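Weekend entry, working from home. Most of the wet-lab plans are on hold until the incubator is repaired, so I used the time to fold the two sequences that have been sitting in the queue since the last round of cloning. Logging both here for the record. First:
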Amino acid sequence: MNDVPVKKKKISMLLQIAILFAIGAVMIGVLLSNEVKNVSYDLFMLKQKENAESSAEDLAGYLESFPAHDWLIRYWYDHYDELDIEYDAPYSADTVTAGKYSLLMERNPGFIPEYAEIKDVEKLTEEDRKLYAEIEYSRLISRIDQIKKTQNISYVFGVVTEKPYDNQKVLFISAGPGEIRGSEKGQVYPIGTELIVTEERQNAVLNAISGEPQFSYNEDEKYFDYYYPFCSIDSHDVLIVISMYVPKVEMPFYDSMAKLSVMTIEFMALLAAICLAMIIMVILLPLKDVQDNISLFKNTKDSSTVVENLSKISSHNEIAELSSDFASMVVELNAYMIRNEETAVREEHNKTELALANRIQTAMLPNVFPSYPDRTDFDIYASMTPAREVGGDFYDFFLVDDEHLCLVIADVSGKGVPAALYMMATKILLSQMIKTDRSAAQILNDANASICSKNPEEMFVTVWLGILDLTTGIMTCANAGHEYPMLKKAGGQFELVKDKHGLVIGAIEGAVYQDYELRLDPGASVFVYTDGLAEASSSDHQMFGTDRILENLNTDPDRTPEMILQDMKQAVSSFTQSTELFDDLTMMCITYHGKV
């Protein structure tokens, strides 16, 4: 008894499309709004950081405009508990500071505080030095209060700290109208107040002093602080800090983003409604006619009536062709399915074989790192990324004996399976020829002779080979048409070693190769690669090039070989973006540590 298919309940295509359009409009609107918000927020925060940096540089420039600013900072720090400071008073004739200024001028005619140098200050009496320090401190407070007001900053202050930077002492701090100065929480701290420093702020201070101004959120994330290194006093460091109240800064941004999000969703909904109406008129109604005639043919097998009806469908797009081609489609579809199934089987078989070849090729290369976990006299790392499923590049390294390490990197002409087979044969041949009593050049001479004797396809391979004496650090090398190696001496940077090239192996029988030496002191590194690295291309057909290789290596030349290769891969990926690799990408790096 045959099972009768159960008819599923139909849902109108119009309803389905309307639901999908509604969901899509909302999702796109939300995603678009979120993306715009993220990009805008990053730009907004960048502007805030630029504002903070500009304010810090403004204040630093103001302080440096005083020829005796080093003396002032040191005096403020050493005598903060003795100073009679007039905080937040406008710098005018009726202030206490103005009276001090008049007194100082009366006692010391010709002394101009704004232009006084340290030698001028040291000529003053101790009492007048104190007056001078109090006057300039009050002027500084007026200036930072002005910066706070004009730049919409929560606080501008300076701190003095020293290693390990786990505490800070307030040197100066701005205050707004109505803000009370005192040591209680919520008040504006006076000079000399000690601040407890969180680990995050401690790290931010350390990084800032190391040469890069840093941002740090406080413990409740209500403020973020910009640390700007200003100067050093003996063993103490002085930093300018720009502090911003996060909710106040972000509120206008989120208000505008909320309005933009609503407008975006409304626009997407309107666009979806217009598109839906066009789809109904242009697609759904003609498709409904096609569907009705398909059902008629299925029920009646009356082909002449169906063909006549389909020819009357009013449509000026692909639906008209669909209706005219429907009669022959069923027969062609069956044949196509058979062909498609056979093709799929062949493709799957090919993929399986290529995947197996890739695993075999990968297994032939050293791919377990660290390869010599018990050795402390060197650190080595290598990688090979084929442009296709299998590649023609290869690398190898192994201990010839306890005191000699052999390194090989090579690039076979061509790509794909032929290059991979040639690569495997060359690798095996080189491995068999390497012995302790052979030089690098002799190995290449013998390999060239062997390959030239059996090379009907006239393929060739570039090879760089080095044998490192682990007791002396001397590496004996030879180059058969390969890329120049790059050497970093201990404590230095990577540089290109323009060694003497021989011909590629397999080109001419009887070619002669020459040895040369690289001396590796402990801490030195050697980086070798195939031309797939230098010739990696971007979407606008620019090559990665040797200069970019050196630039990436020297961003931090003391990285481990593994980190160097990982960073280089990331740099190539960022450079090429979506562009596929044209050639295999192979790299190897070794750092010599010497006997420990």
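Second, folded right after the first finished:
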Amino acid sequence: MKNGDLNLANLVILLMDCQTTGANPKRGSVLEIGWARSDSLDYRREMSEIKVRLFRKPIDFKIPARVQKLTGIEMDDVLNGVTPEDIWGEILATADTIARLNDAQTCPTVIHFAKFEIPFLIDLHGKFGERRDFPFTFICTHEIARYLFPDLPRRSLRAMAGFLGHSLPLSRRCREHVHATGLIWGEIVRVLEEKYGIVTYQQLMQWLQQPKVLVPSSRSYPMSSCTLQDLPAKPGVYRMLRSNGDVLYVGKAKSLKSRVKSYFRKSTRHPEHILEMLTQAKDLDLTTTESLLEASLLESDEIKRLAPPYNIALRQGEREICFFSNDLSEFNSLPTEKHRIGPIACREAILSFAAVGKIIGSDNITGVDEELLMRGICVSDTFVLDSRCVRSGYQKFMEKYAGALRNGSPTECLHAVASQLWIESKEERLCENDGMQELVLKSIEIPAWTSDSVCRLIESTVMHAGHAIRRARWFATLTESSVGWAESPDSDGSYFLIVFEKGQILYRRTFNRGELPVPPGYWRGFVDRHRSFDVMTYDRMRVVTTELSKVMAADGWVQIRFSPDNVLGGEQLINLMHWL
């Protein structure tokens, strides 16, 4: 660069980002590339000027499922993409223009975590660069950030953008990543001048070439100590906020003071996604509640309402509920007179349960369709199993539970087997992860596919699907109820009451232990109650059930009133919860 003393604030640069199917050109290929020429540090106005191209792929090309989920790029997108030659020609033309404007031989190219993109760009140039010299000089904002912001917990693109108050969508796409890279570059230019007096391109290149020692330091967070002072030691919900006010995460706590401060203790070990979130969190929003159960309910509703990016559990996302016919042969997204079994959040488990019912109801298992056999054991179609082994597994299941399978319809028989398995099982239970309830089949380590292992899979399918159906009826019952509880049987007056109508909280208050009020909607039938359900209502009823179980497990007091004549409590409720 002849004008090596060009001020960084006036340097014309190329911002770039790639989305690929693998870690390097040998294991993957570029799906999408985005780039933008930038003539100033005001990158907030660059979104409309960012060019994005999808690479055309052959008809037999496959996008890995994980990559498709992360990016949202589908096969139709790349089948109709642009040829790599044309894309690379556009990029080279932009690079030549930038080099001329800077009066330089190469184009200064800013990429966040350039180590990832560089091999792909070199590979593209080797194929489509027409044997000309490689025209890029790379500046890696991630590498610079390591030295400029050594105390930040994480310096990924999402973490750094959020640290600056910029929101990145969950899907990883080039347009948004190029824009975020520009914002990070602008901040880096500012800090380089402030911390090292670096203001020109030549000074930056010299600084980058010098060996640098990264001095280990204690981790620091953007959240100020003032924000963490005087936190209430009460139950409630906390919301982690970016500097722009975006909600990053919603959590509940029995003591807000203890829970929130636990994030910032030196001894606390966090997973990667929490460290990335804490890099961006600069403020808090708190809501106190009278009890942990109320905090849990508020947390569930707030996560649906706000869809914070770092809440995995309890988000609605693509989750949905459905309702099945009595014989489980059909399902519908809405309840009808025909579809009265629900709400069900784990549709596949019930379909597998129904498949087992069809199989045991057949006259001859050797004539059962193989696809139906596989559906009944909830095994991915990527598995290749010996159909004789699968059939012998079903035969073993039918022999093992011959007594229960004799009386009633196949569905009724399987419910009897499910109940028997639930009673016998001590370790196989509903899988719960950080408050997220999905009926998941317990992982079974299978050293080899045998009739015994197939039988165990059928048992797992039946037990968990039967549990899902029991819970569905309970949730529908709970939508019209009055719930009273105290965390200890000898409470000093801290008794709490919530009254539900149509699955919504009609009112809540503390009360003197006594007779619970009759819920106003107790008269509603199940079809009417089902109409109240969506994912938010489903999770609300699940949270109530989970939290009440915890209260009872800790010897607390719980009582639920469903109608003028139906009140449950004590051992009766404990025994019922065992089934739920």
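Plan for Monday: verify the second prediction. The radius of gyration is 30 Å.
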